[in-house]
Design brief:
single chain, alpha+beta, 28% helix, elongated, disordered C terminus
Length: 236
């Protein structure tokens, strides 16, 4: 069995999935393929107490929103089971941990905690409470001290193809209003022309800097072409 989600030892099968008359002891992630339009299909196969795959399967929705809704439902079930476990063991309920985290740690707009946040057992002295941390678009832009970017890869490309030269393209992340977010990025690429260098720089940026909805990369600088890098800049 690969990628198996094992049920807790000693847990009665009635608390989890029953597949006909077969007692299920584990779930196996089966046929989990991602295609050009999203998840093609995701299926969970139940395994019997004899360690054999049972008939049938559980299909997960391929739509991300539907899957997210299912996850929320399962989280509520998880929290209810955990609350009962805590009550049985004489431990403070999940909500007590959540309330304490909200009161002592939450900061609106920076670190937020849902009322139904997941709580994970830590140790005898505490627990872990799920939280949301805000990350701005500008936080994804490397600081100027770490630039120019992609130098090593560009130099390797140029050494492989002697027709290529090193270029430096300045890109910025802008929103729909044209406002810039974070520092500009100095991206190095090996190309035969400034326009090819710009395309390669933008391709590198898209692969390494995620963008929020409505944002895009925009070329910056006095001219519209990428500026060739001098020998001194290349060595630096």
């Amino acid at each position: 069995m690969a990628n198996v989600i094992k049920y807790p030892e000693g847990m009665t099968p009635e608390s989890f999935l029953r597949n006909g008359s077969v007692r299920t002891t584990a779930l196996d992630v089966l046929d989990c393929d991602y295609g050009p339009t999203g998840w093609e299909h995701v299926r969970l196969t139940p395994w019997s107490s004899r360690g054999e795959p049972a008939s049938g399967f559980i299909a997960l929705p391929r739509d991300p929103d539907t899957l997210a809704a299912l996850i929320r439902e399962l989280r509520e079930v998880h929290n209810a089971i955990l609350d009962q476990k805590n009550r049985d063991e004489g431990i403070a309920g999940r909500q007590a941990w959540v309330n304490a985290a909200i009161e002592n740690s939450a900061r609106e707009g920076e670190l937020e905690i849902d009322d139904d946040a997941t709580v994970s057992d830590g140790c005898e002295a505490g627990a872990y409470v799920q939280s949301w941390v805000w990350v701005s678009q500008s936080d994804l832009i490397p600081p100027k001290g770490d630039q120019p970017l992609n130098v090593a890869s560009a130099i390797a490309d140029m050494e492989e193809d002697k027709k290529l030269s090193l270029y430096q393209t300045v890109l910025a992340v802008v929103d729909g209003e044209g406002d810039q977010h974070g520092d500009t990025m100095d991206i190095v690429s090996a190309a035969e022309s400034p326009e090819e260098a710009f395309v390669k720089a933008e391709t590198w940026a898209r692969a390494n800097i995620p963008l929020c909805d409505g944002m895009c990369f925009e070329r910056r600088g006095k001219s519209e072409v990428a500026t060739p890098i001098t020998t001194e800049e290349k060595v630096a």
